[in-house]
């Protein structure tokens, strides 16, 4: 084996210029593959992190995935019901005290129960449609994404007593109102109550900044004429990726629709899978192109060393020895290219991580490209490189192993 290895190294060094070109080809492919994977994975991780931070991990509403079974379906084995319309029921989650007590007993996270109702906010002859959310400030702080996004006032001011309201800054701008002004909130039932603005938030999400306002839960229940009602439970877990299991357990026990953040963003998660398939397909294509360079070198060596091969086989080297020698040559080029590609990939990733740019979103913010540092990227890129190198070395190796030494020595090939 040591002799075969020495011969393989001698063959590679004998064609130094071509070997160097092949190594550079592999290293460039590996390096750019690592940098591209780091950038794409970093962007995906950053986006998912923003989803996890800005939305509940599990959201329970007073909806049901399927309508309740009708009495006729319970009595008869086969029943067909058409034109069924749900009753106008505005009660929200039935027996919310028992539901929240059950969550307290086992939930591995925090939650906040609220009452969400549609209405209109009016000020000085102007009005804006709004989703008016009644919350308990104490529990809402643990799950709400807006608590740290206030430009004026604060979320804590909501609990200072009285009829207070906090809203998006774009809604206030649309109304022409500001901190300390009194606006009128009108529910879908027509009931109107005055509220004083004690805080303005800016999340950067237009729908939220223009269309959401928060008041105390008891005030929302009075405004919507739904005493002691809640229709929304938002949950933050210690492990966000445990959300599907938690949602299934809640839905099975309470009967209400519980949606994990993965389900709510199912289309986006599927798009990430497709993007990763495309990314690794491109990596494989790059490595395939580099493999052609290795194939060219090993094929040339096989052709030029035909007589050497014949002499070696005459001396007792087997067909498998010939195959092993040329595969080693291909793998050696692939390994050298991978090592150089690791260094190039690390340098490119460092360069991308140092790129800074400015975003103007309520003020200038200097930020960096999202980069994911993972040894898996290096392993995958090297795996593609070594795989293509092995194949590129094996194909001419089969040809070399089949050569008849007598024909070569006689000059038949």
From TrEMBL:
Which parts of the chain span the membrane according to its record? 20-40, 277-298, 326-355, 375-395
Q: Where is the ABC3 transporter permease C-terminal domain?
A: 281-405
Which keywords does the record carry? Cell membrane, Membrane, Transmembrane, Transmembrane helix
- What are the BP-aspect GO terms? lipoprotein localization to outer membrane
Q: How does it sit in the membrane?
A: Multi-pass membrane protein
The record's annotation in InterPro entries points to: ABC3_permease_C, Lipoprotein-release_system, MacB_PCD
DNA damage found in the keyword field:
no
Q: Which residues form the MacB-like periplasmic core domain?
A: 19-252
Q: Where in the cell is it found?
A: Cell membrane
Q: Spell out the GO cellular component terms annotated for this protein, sorted alphabetically and separated by semicolons.
A: plasma membrane protein complex
Q: Decide whether keyword Cytoplasm is in the record.
A: no
Which protein family is named in the record? Belongs to the ABC-4 integral membrane protein family. LolC/E subfamily.
Q: State what protein this is by name.
A: ABC transporter permease
Q: What is the lineage of its organism?
A: Bacteria, Pseudomonadati, Pseudomonadota, Alphaproteobacteria, Hyphomicrobiales
């Amino acid at each position: 084996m040591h002799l075969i290895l020495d011969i393989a190294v001698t063959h590679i060094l004998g064609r130094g210029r071509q070997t160097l070109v092949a190594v550079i080809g592999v290293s460039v492919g590996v390096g750019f593959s690592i940098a591209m994977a780091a950038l794409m994975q970093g962007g995906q991780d950053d986006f998912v992190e923003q989803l996890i931070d800005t939305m509940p991990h599990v959201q329970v509403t007073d909806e049901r995935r399927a309508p309740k079974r009708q009495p006729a379906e319970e009595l008869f084995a086969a029943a067909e019901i058409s034109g069924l319309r749900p009753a106008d029921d505005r009660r929200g989650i039935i027996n919310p005290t028992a539901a929240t007590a059950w969550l307290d007993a086992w939930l591995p996270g925090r939650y906040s129960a609220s009452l969400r109702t549609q209405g209109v906010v009016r000020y000085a002859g102007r009005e804006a449609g709004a989703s008016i959310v009644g919350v308990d400030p104490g529990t809402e702080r643990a799950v709400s994404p807006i608590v740290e996004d206030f430009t004026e006032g604060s979320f804590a001011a909501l609990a200072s007593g009285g009829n207070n309201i906090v809203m998006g800054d774009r809604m206030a701008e649309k109304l022409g109102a500001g901190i300390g002004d009194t606006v009128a909130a009108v529910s879908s039932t027509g009931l109107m109550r005055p509220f004083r603005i004690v805080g303005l938030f800016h999340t950067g999400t237009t729908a939220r900044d223009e269309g959401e306002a928060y008041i105390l839960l008891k005030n929302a229940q009075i405004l919507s004429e739904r005493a002691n009602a809640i229709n929304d439970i938002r949950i933050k877990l210690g492990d966000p990726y445990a959300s599907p299991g938690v949602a299934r357990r809640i839905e099975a026990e309470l009967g209400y629709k519980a949606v994990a953040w993965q389900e709510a963003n199912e289309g986006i998660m599927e798009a990430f899978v497709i993007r990763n398939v495309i990314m690794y397909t491109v990596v494989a294509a790059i490595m395939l192109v580099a493999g052609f360079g290795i194939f060219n070198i090993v094929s040339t060596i096989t052709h030029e060393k035909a007589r050497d091969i014949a002499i070696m086989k005459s001396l007792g080297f087997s067909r498998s020895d010939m195959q092993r020698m040329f595969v080693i040559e291909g793998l050696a080029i692939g390994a050298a290219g991978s090592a150089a590609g690791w260094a190039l990939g690390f340098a490119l990733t460092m360069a991308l991580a140092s790129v800074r740019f400015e975003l103007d979103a309520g003020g200038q913010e200097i930020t960096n490209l999202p980069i994911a540092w993972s040894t898996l990227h290096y392993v995958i890129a090297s795996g593609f490189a070594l795989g293509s190198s092995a194949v590129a070395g094996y194909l001419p190796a089969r040809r070399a192993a089949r050569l008849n030494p007598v024909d070569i020595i006689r000059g038949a090939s």
